[in-house]
Structures are given as structure tokens and as C-alpha cells.
Design goal:
Chain A: It is an enzyme of class 7 (translocase). The complex is a heterodimer of chains A (553) and B (268). Chain A is mainly alpha-helical and 553 residues long. Helix content of chain A is 64%, strand content 6%. Chain A has helices at 2-15, 18-31, 33-41, 53-72, 98-108, 113-140, 149-171, 176-191, 196-204, 213-243, 263-288, 294-297, 316-324, 340-367, 383-402, 405-411, 416-455, 479-486, 506-519, 528-552; strands at 44-45, 81-83, 95-97, 247-248, 261-262, 331-333, 336-338, 375-376, 457-464, 470-475. The chains are: A mainly alpha (553), B mainly alpha (268).
């Protein structure tokens, strides 16, 4: 944004001078910023709706910072006990912490406070949702491949930080729901063998809930986590600029260029407008729909737990894991209890999250692909990856759904045990089914693409030949249309090769086996020769180039 | 106590009190409570004795036709349904006028549905059942006005009721397909009756547990929730983060994606 303002300042300087020109000149002479502005202003961004999801995350983050700053003016991160005496009648005279009291004060007695709270919370939900969707886009288009693996990892760190921000924020008002959430975290920590109890006491400054946790979470929420988040976000953006943006294959779009609009002026205008649209949508939602009605939850008290107590959606998968694990898992060794019903879900989630974090490196190792990729894959053209993604999404979705098992039971008139058992099976079988089905669908779509590229699409026009034979006329694609269908890489499974010392290592075998699993079933892209044969020499004239370009690589 | 104390003293110091003293005490006690009970019950029904008898006979007929299959001709209960001796008028009024009884079908728990009986018939039924054995009666109107202390009621509600009914009274799941229903729009009388009789899976909150005044406070809070919509806007069913998350993903992110598609659409 700052570069945009600078650019606006320097642009007229070249034409007419005047105050703007003088001011721009003044700044440039002292900072040499025009080089940077020139460089950034000419950055190209390709146009595709899915490329704007990361922007949504960025803009909601800006909204979060703006509203969050407002909230810090009035919020008191203290667990000192006070008696509520504000405007909300059903809480008058109730003892609560200063944190809860000040949150109620913001909601009912500060002008615009409730709107700010709701904007902050809705924006937080949108922030993490758009990060999730952005990650899925990157994953399914293979945009995490070299040279962007590191940026994937930084993005992953951002995602985890956002979860941390969300959870610490959820716990701050010290209402019943957030207290219950903290109690679950406390239980999780205490469930870890040997160290758990110590960590819990360290975190809460004594026995749960203590009088320290809100202050500590506040420091994390407004200082530590945002600082790291902003730093990581900066690195994320810098790498985005250095690596350039990926683009989908198309005529004139190669691995060595970026086709799109420059930041100045088109993209900046669009992005600026988009920021206000995102802001507007969030404010509209926040002004119409209640979020986190702490006034009905009431102040935290360790004894009550409300029915339908859930975390915000982004922690739902962890809550779901706790709900799905058989509750009687566990054993004892000597004086130590090993609560597998806590340890198992924690391990599963850690492994799942680690797989997400390191997927680019894992895939690069399996495929042995060391080339740079700037063309985004169509998901169907990487069937195994897409299938792995679908399996992962299914796994996550089942855990996520499990977090609302009780609401599923009441709203669909089912028994909660039935819902849990069904979800337990779905958690194991669902990803397998999703994997197989997705892979077959991808291969099927690739076959269809190949068919269309070679023989054109069915026009629906039936022609009777003089001999009485009926044929359906196939319309050929234009070269532009065909380009999309034929330009993608074809991989073959790695061969098991002995290393320099003539040995075939176990790692080598594993890698070959995995590579075989990855690329065993594949549909080869249409080659120039095939096109030539199917259309005759004159038809190939235009389309030879993309196919040939593919072959050169 | 009255029995054991003379026995003990008899062992230690015989003949300090007459042997008849304990018997006399019991007699006096019984007469006092019985007399008082008779006095109160008769005073309550004194002016409507004739009407009440008519009601009871009407109720008995209705009972035989609609309830006796499961609850037995003499309210003794069968394998299909529990005994109704001692359930009281409150229980019958609650179950029948909310349509839970008679059951439409057997299942995890009785479902609320439009009542099958008129107010008069319902009254006949509960008067009949109450005439067989004493139990919790129809609650006093003074507790149903919704003019108690809402803050106190809210606190009691969170501690005693929210774990099944949800803090906002939106309802919640129980085991084996049973559930705690939503409390929005439930009449004050039904809330009170449910507390004293514990219908379906609900525990009984008797007057020792939650005093009638506190019951009135809880009713006041629930009425407050009914009459005052959420200060933050539409409440999305008061289901907490699940409905918020669902709303955000479908409508929030849906709108945003629509905008991204619009922004990147190629001009035709």
C-alpha cells in the first residue's frame, strides 16, 4: 500500500512538477525510493479468482488489527473480582473478573463497542477461513513446488499463528464458554504423561483457573503472536514478490514469464477496492449477526458447562478428535497414568499438521523433481496429489464435523452415540474412499481432456452420409482452448538405481516405491505427434507450438 | 426421634416419663398434621366440591380411554408405562397440555406436539390423577409472573440447567437419542411444572433444591431472553460457535468468493 502512495506521488512529477513533484523529488533524493517503486509498480499479477484468497486473509488481518486496537483501549486483562453494575440487566450484581466486566462494558456501554467486538471476531473467523482456503488453492495447484516450498512453510507458520491468535482471543473475555475452552486445554495438558501437570501449573500460575491466565494470554494475543505474525507475513510477501506469482497454463503463459496486470495502476486499484469490499462484507455481517454473546454465557465459573459448548470453528478439528477417541483408552505404569484418550488425538493431530507443513518437501523427494515450477497445475493433472489432498480434507472435515456431534444429534434427531460411532468409522474409511474416488475422477477427467484435445468435442450435429451412415460431427478446439488441455508435465516413476558405491539403499527403494505409487496410474499429455496424426498436417499448424514447448522441457 | 428418645431414657432411668407419653405425643402429632391437611385440602376444594367430583368422573373416563392402556386402569402402571400414583397435577398438566402425552409412538422420549385435549379436559385429567394420590400441584400464579430477579435467575440457570438446555435455553443433546428441548417460548407454568416434576429425563428440582422464589427468578430470566432479542443482531439460533462458523463459511466466505470471481471476470 505504501508503495502505491509513493507511486502516485512520483507519477505526476514526471509530467508537470509542482508541489507533488517537488515532494516526490524531495523524498526520492533522500531515500532513493523510486527504484523500489518502479520495481514493485511493474510487478505483474495474473488474474484468477483463486489467486485472491490470500489477499482476503491479508485484508481481514488489517481489519482485525484496526478493531483490535480499538478494543485494547477499553479491555482490562485482569482477573480481579468485581461486581457487574453495567447496563445488561440479567448480569447486574453478579461477581465476575475485570476482564469479563470490561468486555461487557465494551459491549453495552462504549459507543460502537459491540460492533467493534463483532467486527473483530467475525474478521478473525474470516481470516482463518480464507487462510485455509488459500492453502487448499496452493496445494491443489501445486504452487508449493520449487521455488516456493519455503513460502509454503512460512504460510503454514502463519496459519498456526492465526490459530494461536484465535484461541488466545477466544479466551480473553473470561466468559463461561472461553473458560470451558481453557479447561479443555488444561485437561489436554494435564493428560500428557509426567510433564503435563507441571506445565499446567506453570501456564496457569498454579491450579486452574488461577488469577494469571487472562493477563498472560493477553500478552500473547496483542504482543507476541501479532509481532511474529507480522514478521512472518512480511517474509511471506517478500518471497511472493521474489518468486513471482504462479499462473495457469495458457497461450503465451510460460514457465519463464508472468502474464497479468501490473500492480500500478490496475492491480493496486483492484486490490484497494477489494480491501474495502472485504471490510464492508465483514462489517455488514457484524452489524447484522451476533457473535460470541458473552452476556448469555455469563462469567466463568468452573462448575457450569453449557450444552453445545464448542470452540470457534478453526479449533473444531481438535475438539472433534477428543470427541471421537474412545474415552476408555489408557493405562498405568507405576504411579503414572498414560491417558491415551488424550495422547492419541494429540499425536494424530501433530502428525497431521506436520504432514501439512512438510508436504512440499515430501513430494519433492518422492518425485525427485528439482525443476522450478511457475505454472500452476490443474488439480486433475496431478491425480495422486489431488487424491491425497481430498483424503486430507476428508480427514479434517470429519474431525471438524465431530466437534458439532451433539448439534448434529439434536438437529437431525439422531442418537449422539450413533453419530459418534458413524464418525469414528468415517474418520478411518472416509479418507481412503475419498482418495480412491478422487484419483479415479482425476484420471477420468484427464482422459476426457485427451479425447477432446485429439478429436474435438461432440457438437450434437448428426449428419447422414450419402451411403446412409450417420456420423456425429466433432468440432475441433481452437488452439487457445487446446493449450489448456495439453500443456502439463508427465512424470514417470523413478527407477531404482544403485548409488555411487553400487548399493541400492533402503531409502532408495522406499523412494522408488513411493514414486511408483505416485505416478503408476497416469494419463500422458497429448504430444505433438499425436495431434499431427489426429488432425492432419494443416490442423497441427498452430497447435504445434505449445506441444513442442512442452517437449523441450 | 420421638420414639427412640423415650426408649433410651427407659434403659437408663426407668419411669422418669410415663410410658404413655410417647404414644400421646405421636397421637397429638398425627392429629395435628392430619387435621391441618384435611383443613387445607377441604378449604381448597370446599366451594367446588360438586364441580370437582364431576371433573374427577370426567377425568376418569378420559383416563380410561386415553391413558389406561399404558398407565393401568388404577394408575398402577404397566410394562409400557410408569405408575401415575403420586405424580401430581403438575406433571399431568405439563405432559398433556404440551402434547407429550398421550405418546404418538414409543421412542427415546416423548415429543412435544399440539395438545390432544382442551383446557377443560386437561383439567379433568389432572384433577382425576391428583385425586388418587397427592403430588406436586398446579403452581401458584405468583411465581409465574416473570417479575423476579433476572440476574439471580440467570446464574441459577447457568449452574443448574445450562448443561442440558444450553446457556441461552436453545436445547442440547443427551444420550441415546434423548435431548433437552429448547426453552424459547415455553410458558412460565410449564417451566415451573417441569422443574417440580422432572419430565422425561429431567431431574426434579424440588422446593428444597431450588426455592419457589428462585424458580420464579429462573422463569424471569427465560422470559427476559424471550422478550429481548440478542443485542448483537440475529442470534443464529443461539447455538454458539458452530452456527457462527457455518454462517461464516457459507455466507461470509461465499460472498467474498463471489466478489473475487466478479473482480477477475473477463470483459465480454
Amino acid at each position: 500500500m505504501s508503495s502505491a502512495t509513493q507511486e502516485r506521488a512520483t507519477a505526476p512529477a514526471r509530467r508537470s512538477g509542482g508541489f507533488t513533484g517537488a515532494a516526490a523529488n524531495y523524498i526520492d533524493e533522500r531515500t532513493s525510493i523510486s527504484g523500489l517503486v518502479k520495481e514493485l509498480g511493474r510487478k505483474i499479477f495474473p488474474d484468477h479468482w483463486s489467486f485472491m484468497l490470500g489477499e482476503v486473509a491479508l485484508y481481514s488481518f488489517v481489519v482485525i488489527i484496526l478493531t483490535g486496537t480499538f478494543l485494547t483501549f477499553f479491555f482490562q486483562a485482569s482477573m480481579a473480582e468485581v461486581t457487574y453494575d453495567g447496563s445488561y440487566l440479567p448480569l447486574k450484581g453478579i461477581d465476575m473478573s475485570a476482564a469479563m466486566n470490561s468486555t461487557l462494558h465494551i459491549s453495552f456501554d462504549i459507543r460502537g463497542g459491540l460492533l467493534m467486538r463483532q467486527v473483530h471476531h467475525w474478521a478473525a473467523l474470516l481470516f482463518i477461513a480464507s487462510i485455509g482456503l488459500h492453502m487448499l488453492r496452493i496445494f491443489f495447484t501445486g504452487a508449493f513446488r520449487k521455488p516456493r516450498e519455503l513460502n509454503w512453510f512460512i504460510g503454514f507458520v502463519l496459519f498456526i499463528l492465526a490459530l494461536g491468535e484465535g484461541f488466545t482471543g477466544y479466551s480473553l473475555p473470561d466468559d463461561l464458554l472461553s473458560g470451558n475452552g481453557l479447561r479443555i486445554i488444561d485437561g489436554l495438558i494435564k493428560g500428557l504423561p509426567i510433564v503435563g501437570t507441571w506445565i499446567s501449573y506453570l501456564l496457569f500460575g498454579g491450579e486452574f483457573p488461577g488469577t494469571a491466565i487472562v493477563g498472560r494470554l493477553y500478552t500473547l494475543h496483542i504482543l507476541l503472536l501479532p509481532a511474529i505474525l507480522v514478521a512472518a507475513l512480511g517474509a511471506h510477501m517478500v518471497l511472493l514478490i521474489i518468486n513471482k506469482h504462479t499462473q495457469f497454463a495458457g497461450p503465451g503463459k510460460t514457465n519463464d514469464n508472468v502474464v497479468g496486470v501490473p500492480i500500478m495502476p490496475v492491480f493496486a486499484a483492484k486490490a484497494g477496492g477489494f480491501f474495502f469490499i472485504v471490510f464492508g462484507v465483514i462489517v455488514l455481517i457484524a452489524s447484522l449477526f451476533t457473535i460470541n454473546p458473552i452476556w448469555t454465557y455469563g462469567p466463568y465459573d468452573p462448575s457450569p458447562v453449557s450444552a453445545g459448548t464448542q470452540p470457534d470453528w478453526y479449533i473444531g478439528f481438535a475438539d472433534g478428535a477428543l470427541r471421537l477417541v474412545p474415552s476408555d483408552w489408557g493405562f498405568m505404569i507405576g504411579p503414572w497414568t498414560f491417558s491415551l484418550n488424550i495422547i492419541a488425538p494429540v499425536l494424530v493431530l501433530v502428525v497431521f499438521i506436520a504432514l501439512v507443513a512438510f508436504y512440499p518437501f515430501i513430494e519433492a523427494w518422492i518425485t525427485g523433481d528439482k525443476r522450478e515450477h511457475h505454472i500452476a497445475d490443474r488439480p486433475r493433472n496431478a491425480p495422486t496429489r489431488t487424491a491425497i489432498g481430498a483424503a486430507g480434507v476428508t480427514f479434517y472435515a470429519v474431525l471438524w464435523g465431530a466437534a458439532s456431534s451433539d448439534l448434529v444429534a439434536t438437529h437431525f434427531k439422531l442418537s449422539i452415540e450413533g453419530v459418534i460411532v458413524t464418525l469414528q468409522y468415517t474418520l478411518i474409511l472416509g479418507p481412503i474412499v475419498a482418495y480412491l474416488v478422487t484419483k479415479r475422477i482425476c484420471l477420468g477427467l484427464q482422459k476426457k481432456d485427451r479425447e477432446i484435445a485429439l478429436h474435438g468435442y461432440e457438437s450434437g450435429r448428426i449428419v447422414r452420409l450419402p451411403g446412409g451412415e450417420y456420423i456425429e460431427v466433432h468440432e475441433q478446439l481452437t488452439d487457445y482452448e487446446r493449450w489448456r488441455l495439453v500443456s502439463f508435465d508427465s512424470y514417470a516413476p523413478l527407477m531404482v538405481r544403485p548409488n555411487a558405491r553400487g548399493r541400492i539403499t533402503a531409502a532408495q527403494r522406499t523412494r522408488a516405491a513411493l514414486s511408483n505409487w505416485f505416478f503408476e496410474d497416469r494419463i500422458a499429455p497429448v504430444t505433438a505427434t499425436e495431434l499431427h496424426h489426429s488432425h492432419g498436417p494443416e490442423a497441427i499448424h498452430g497447435s504445434a507450438e505449445p506441444a513442442a514447448a512442452e517437449l523441450e522441457k | 426421634m420421638a420414639k427412640s428418645t423415650p426408649l433410651q431414657s427407659k434403659k437408663q432411668r426407668p419411669a422418669r416419663r410415663s410410658k404413655l407419653a410417647s404414644i400421646a405425643l405421636i397421637t397429638i402429632g398425627l392429629l395435628a398434621t392430619g387435621g391441618a391437611y384435611a383443613l387445607f385440602t377441604t378449604s381448597a376444594t370446599a366451594d367446588t366440591t360438586a364441580g370437582s367430583e364431576q371433573l374427577i368422573s370426567q377425568g376418569s373416563k378420559l383416563f380410561a380411554a386415553n391413558c389406561a392402556t399404558c398407565h393401568g386402569m388404577n394408575l398402577e402402571g404397566t410394562k409400557a408405562g410408569p405408575s401415575l400414583l403420586g405424580v401430581g397435577a403438575a406433571s399431568v398438566e405439563f405432559q398433556v397440555s404440551t402434547g407429550r402425552m398421550p405418546l404418538a409412538q414409543s421412542g427415546p422420549q416423548a415429543q412435544e406436539k399440539p395438545s390432544q385435549f382442551t383446557t377443560e379436559q386437561t383439567k379433568a385429567l389432572y384433577t382425576f390423577v391428583a385425586s388418587k394420590a397427592p403430588g406436586p400441584g398446579i403452581p401458584d400464579k405468583t411465581y409465574l409472573g416473570g417479575n423476579g430477579n433476572a440476574a439471580k435467575g440467570a446464574e441459577l440457570f447457568r449452574i443448574n440447567c445450562a448443561m442440558c438446555h444450553n446457556v441461552a435455553g436453545a436445547g442440547g443433546a443427551l444420550t441415546q437419542g434423548k435431548y433437552a428441548p429448547a426453552l424459547t417460548g415455553v410458558t412460565a407454568q410449564h417451566i415451573y411444572e417441569a422443574m417440580v416434576t422432572g419430565p422425561q429425563n429431567m431431574p426434579v428440582f424440588n422446593d428444597k433444591n431450588i426455592s419457589p422464589t428462585d424458580k420464579a427468578n429462573i422463569i424471569t430470566y427465560l422470559k427476559y431472553l424471550d422478550q429481548n432479542p440478542s443485542p448483537g443482531g440475529f442470534d443464529l439460533g443461539n447455538l454458539g460457535p458452530v452456527s457462527e462458523g457455518l454462517f461464516l463459511w457459507i455466507f461470509g466466505l461465499g460472498t467474498i468468493i463471489g466478489v473475487t470471481v466478479w473482480l477477475t471476470a473477463k470483459a465480454n
